[in-house]
Structure formats: structure tokens, C-alpha cells
């Protein structure tokens, strides 16, 4: 088949490093940089295991580990579990708005408080992003598929999600939230909201990035069945094969 993907501005591979998800493993990511792509081209790359973050597309090329597995949810067949319905009820007062992505002091304050909490909980490196750094990291490039979901408790902004809305799918790219919201499972709630939006738009899949079964911060991604996983990474001109996770 002929690939619809134009030549990238840059293609590189990072120096191997200690994996931040699995102790004792060595991680390595391959990067491709595009200034702009059509939404159909973004979706084409996602189906082959790439993830988008700003102008960068990346996927793992780790030397001795293949535990990062691309996963996506089949939207039409998904039904919330009993515990997920309980999360929805706990967050019944939360309202969600889909807007054009931007950055403000309110965004930065929320992001920094969330990141500080994750630093305390999981040992993340400290972050103190400026408006320009946030925009460069999260919002760079010309991608009209990028949308922002804002979560409000009354008038207070308590969460921000960045998603790509594509011709046949939605990609869940990033989510951060008020640390005080944590007891009501905001991560689960935000994904349920994304699934609801995808169903409303008639989309077939929600892409969740990489599932790592033995990593607690990634293992939750198989709790939204039915899910499919990519059997192997392929080149742009090759057809990907996805299979049901339960197979």
C-alpha cells in the first residue's frame, strides 16, 4: 500500500535510558516531527502505534522490552462497569466543556499543582512551566484535530484534558487535574467522558496510548472493555493488525 504520510521534518531516536515505568528495563523512543498533518494522517499513524504530543510523534523502540502495547477501546460496544457508574455518580456535579485548546494562568496553576502532587506521589521531576513552554509542549504545530476538555466543579476549573478528534476515532492525549479531586477518581471519570463524546460523534475507537500490564499507572487501561491491542509496530506502508485483548 502507499503511505499518505509526507516526509517528516526530523526523525531521530533518543539515547537509551532507564525506563520510568518498569524498574530495571531500558527505554528508548523513536521520534518524528511534523509541523502539520491532516486529521486522517494523524489517525493513520495512531493505528500503527504512534502517539502525538505537539509536533512530535513517538513510539517505543526499546532494545530488549516490548511491554508497551498500543491499546484502543471499541466505543459502540463499551458499557460502564458497576464501579465506573459509581464514579459517574460521585462526579455528577462536574460539568465538561469542549473548547479550542489554549493556555492561561489558570491552566498553569492547575497543571503545576497536579504535577507537584505527582512529584510527591511518584517521584516525578519538578516542573515549573511558563506559558510559552506549555504552549510549545502541548499546543505546538498546526493540527486542527486538537481539542480541549475543561472540567468544572461549579465555576472552578478542576481538570483539563487534551484530545485529538479524528475521522473515525478519538485519541486521549493528556489529562491533569486538581489534586483535591483525586478521591473521586478523576482519571476514570475523564475517560468515561471521552468515551461518551466519542459515542456521541459516532466514532469507532478511543486510543489510550500504551498499556503496560505490570505497571500500576498504566494497567488501568484494560478496564474499559472491549479493547483491542496492536500485535506489532509496522512501517507506514504496511497494514497494522489489531486483535481483541481477550483473545
Number of domains: 1
What is the ordering of alpha helices and beta strands? EEEEHEEEHEHHEEEHEHEE
Ends apart, CA distance between termini: 27 Å
Low-confidence parts lasting 5 or more residues at pLDDT below 50?
none
Helix content estimate:
25-40%
Overall CATH architecture: 3-Layer(aba) Sandwich
Mind telling me the CATH superfamily name? Gcn5-related N-acetyltransferase (GNAT)
What overall form do the CA principal axes indicate? globular
By CATH reckoning, the class would read Alpha Beta
Radius of gyration: 18 Å
**CATH fold call:** Aminopeptidase
Strand tally is: 14
Give the integer mean of the pLDDT values.
94
Strand-residue fraction? 25-35%
What is the quaternary state of this protein? Answer: single chain
Helix/strand-derived category reads alpha+beta
Number of helices: 6
Strand order of the largest sheet: 8-9-10-11-12-7-13-14
Largest sheet: 8 strands, mixed
Explain the overall architecture.
- Helix content is 25%, strand content 30%.
- With 247 residues, the chain is an alpha+beta fold.
- It contains six helices and 14 strands.
- It has an eight-stranded mixed beta sheet, with helices on both faces. A four-stranded antiparallel beta sheet has the order 1-4-6-5, covered by helices on one side.
- The mean pLDDT is 94.
Amino acid at each position: 500500500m502507499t503511505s499518505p504520510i509526507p516526509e517528516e521534518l526530523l526523525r531521530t531516536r533518543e539515547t537509551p535510558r532507564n525506563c520510568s515505568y518498569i524498574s530495571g528495563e531500558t527505554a528508548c523512543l523513536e521520534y518524528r516531527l511534523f509541523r502539520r498533518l491532516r486529521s486522517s494522517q494523524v489517525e493513520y499513524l495512531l493505528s500503527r502505534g504512534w502517539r502525538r504530543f505537539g509536533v512530535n510523534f513517538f513510539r517505543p523502540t526499546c532494545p530488549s522490552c516490548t511491554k508497551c502495547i498500543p491499546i484502543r477501546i471499541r466505543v459502540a460496544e463499551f458499557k460502564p462497569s458497576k464501579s465506573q457508574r459509581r464514579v459517574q455518580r460521585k462526579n455528577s456535579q462536574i460539568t465538561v466543556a469542549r473548547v479550542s485548546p489554549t493556555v492561561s494562568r489558570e491552566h498553569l496553576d492547575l497543571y503545576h499543582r497536579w504535577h507537584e502532587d505527582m512529584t510527591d506521589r511518584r517521584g516525578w521531576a519538578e516542573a515549573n512551566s511558563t506559558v510559552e513552554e506549555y504552549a510549545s509542549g502541548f499546543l505546538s504545530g498546526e493540527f486542527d484535530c486538537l481539542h480541549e476538555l475543561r472540567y468544572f466543579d461549579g465555576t472552578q476549573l478542576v481538570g483539563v484534558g487534551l484530545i485529538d478528534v479524528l475521522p473515525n476515532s478519538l485519541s486521549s492525549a493528556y489529562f491533569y487535574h486538581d489534586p483535591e479531586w483525586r478521591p473521586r477518581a478523576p482519571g476514570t471519570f475523564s475517560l468515561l467522558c471521552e468515551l461518551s463524546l466519542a459515542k456521541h460523534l459516532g466514532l469507532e475507537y478511543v486510543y489510550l496510548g500504551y498499556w503496560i500490564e505490570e505497571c500500576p499507572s498504566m494497567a488501568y487501561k484494560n478496564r474499559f472493555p472491549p479493547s483491542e491491542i496492536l500485535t506489532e509496530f509496522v512501517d507506514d506502508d504496511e497494514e497494522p493488525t489489531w486483535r481483541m485483548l481477550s483473545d
